[in-house]
Inverse folding.
């Protein structure tokens, strides 16, 4: 059987983690995803023990039993309420764009609801467009906070090197039906990011657009300086607006302009739910 055959979506099994082989495969996939020198690798023993106290882990496997992706997190209290923090989600490069990330999140959601957990949190880099699309458009999460260098400035991972670890903290209300697509475009919103790194005006408007590149890793590979300019520009905009009561309303991809953008709207101006 060819590799392409094994990676057909309907030939991939998504199930809870449950054996040392599963946990060891998670460790190997962490190294493959974030690099062999990644300092924040979660060991197999912690993956195993966490599942005994409300943690949740699941993997995606091909027909031969090889792990293609996994998701894992811890359950505890946040804002005084029972909550799950989904710490890691990784999918092998050859298995990406098959919807496995969304399938893993869906199983994680089911397992947590069975435990009585109704809120899940995690983080993602606001500059990574494909993750923004999954989180905001496919899953329907809400952005709670922007944190500069949440995981310190350097984790020895090639994915993190050079741009720091700025992250959105997002919340997924598990009782809500996942989103079916992007929210209204917000064409009236004014662009406020400036990827040349120069200071940007941040007007007090009902809504603004915060642009990002379609592929920040390609941008960084071509020019570290331009990648850092995008980081500075978006950090400035998100800290400014979220600190003043604005909320991230939507995310849109514009292939004609080779750009994507967030619509950020003042809370008092938010549109009613459809």
């Amino acid at each position: 059987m060819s590799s392409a055959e094994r990676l057909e979506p309907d030939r991939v099994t998504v199930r809870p983690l449950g054996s040392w082989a599963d946990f060891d495969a998670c460790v190997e996939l962490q190294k493959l995803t974030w690099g062999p020198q990644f300092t924040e690798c979660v060991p197999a023993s912690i993956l195993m023990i966490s599942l005994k106290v409300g943690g949740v882990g699941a993997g995606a496997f091909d027909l031969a039993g090889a792990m293609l992706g996994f998701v894992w997190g811890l359950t505890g209290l946040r804002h005084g309420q029972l909550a799950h923090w989904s710490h890691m989600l990784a999918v092998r490069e050859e298995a990406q764009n098959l919807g496995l990330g969304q399938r893993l999140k869906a199983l994680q959601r089911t397992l947590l609801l069975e435990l009585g957990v109704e809120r899940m949190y995690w983080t993602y880099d606001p500059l990574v467009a494909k993750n923004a699309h999954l989180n905001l458009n496919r899953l329907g999460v809400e952005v709670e906070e922007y944190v500069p260098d949440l995981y310190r400035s350097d984790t020895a991972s090639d994915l993190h090197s050079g741009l720091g670890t700025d992250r959105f903290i997002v919340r997924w209300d598990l009782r809500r039906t996942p989103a079916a697509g992007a929210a209204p475009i917000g064409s009236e919103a004014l662009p406020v990011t400036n990827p040349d790194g120069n200071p940007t005006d941040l007007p007090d408007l009902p809504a603004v657009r915060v642009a990002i590149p379609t592929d920040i890793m390609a941008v960084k590979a071509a020019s570290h300086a331009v990648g850092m300019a995008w980081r500075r520009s978006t950090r400035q905009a998100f800290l400014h607006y979220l600190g003043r009561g604005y909320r991230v309303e939507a995310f849109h991809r514009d292939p004609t302009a080779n750009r994507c953008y967030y619509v950020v709207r003042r809370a008092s101006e938010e549109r009613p739910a459809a």
